[in-house]
Amino acid sequence: MSTKIINIPEQPPEDGLQSYKEYTLNAEQYYLIDQAFLVPGQKVSFRIFSLHGQMLKLVLDADESAPAAIDKTTVDEKSDFLIKSSDIPLYQDYLSMLTKTDSAFKGDKSKAAVIIKEQSKMVMKDLFANPVSRQTVETVRDTASHIIKCIFEEPEVIYDLLTLKKHDFYSYMHSVNVAVLCIGLGRIMGLPEKTIEHHGTGALLHDIGKTAIPLEILNKQGKLSSAEFHIYKTHVAQGMKILKEVGGLPDESLIIVLQHHEKLTGKGYPLGLSDKEIKTAGRISAIADCYDYLTTPRPNKYALNPYEALKTIAAEKEDYDRALLAAFVKMLGKMAKTS
Ligand SMILES: [Fe+2]
Question: Cα(50) to centroid of ligand 1, in Å?
């Protein structure tokens, strides 16, 4: 097979907004997949690329008319693997086939969790790319209940469900991580399952208002100006507007959209609420959102490891609910110790 090299910048260029926008659009044409699903010998009908520094290399050439088997040496490579975004439906078919036919995937809870994560990621990518409708919200609700089922059956899979990948900084991935964290925290706090499901749905949708914020602001390198930050903060109101127009969501989901940036000290936004004005759903999502933000790398922003992130949040503990924060640290303690 001939090797085709495509130049894709790993880091955005430093010469201004326009080229950074091009970088983002270019990066959006590809979709990061989990290496766990590249099973040697299995046939795929989509092309697979690996990312080496700033180079994207075609490692498996295949399409629907000429499927090809995955080669062991390819998947042993230490790399991030990507497919073209347009091949996502073919990748979804491949995942369903794996769960049904591959013995390694049947009955393994940890592998089942990774498949759920991968499917959730695709639902969210779709949600962020298209107008929100009653039907897409229903799919999001189903996604939240799949994640809950997974965590309730085997709490340890929470570590498999969280994604800590260096190139996976998109809003859709952040939403899946925040949902996993909210669901995990709701479970250890002993909240009713229905409440946890509503929290999970709200967490998946919490940043949907970002679709109404200009990319120049969302992807800006460095600090936002106060005018830009003012626009950025409107993603909360925009999210509420979008979801209220669609309708049918429970209050416990909408509270997450509305209150995930509020702080108990009153220093948050959009309303600067404090203490009892912030509901449990808002308090849970504020911790989850902040933790995932800190542990996710973005262009020009290093990611903290779980231990450092928990330490950073603890340094501002007055902003967060004390009992929830203690439970959160306990939940992620294992991850923090091994990082
Ligand atoms: Fe947000």
Answer: 31
Distance CA 208, CA 199 (A): 15
Residues 286, 308: Cα–Cα separation, whole Å: 17
Q: What is the 261 CA–ligand 1 centroid distance (Å)?
A: 6
- For residue 336, count other CB atoms closer than 10 A to its CB: 15
Amino acid at 236: V
Tell me the CA–centroid distance for residue 285 and ligand 1, in Å: 10
All structural domains of the chain: 1-85 (no CATH), 107-338 (1.10.3210.10)
* 119, 170, 323, 330, 337 from 32: Cα distances, Å: 12, 11, 36, 30, 27
Per-residue pLDDT of 14-70, as tens digits, reads: 443 334 444 444 666 888 888 888 888 899 999 998 877 667 788 899 999 999 999
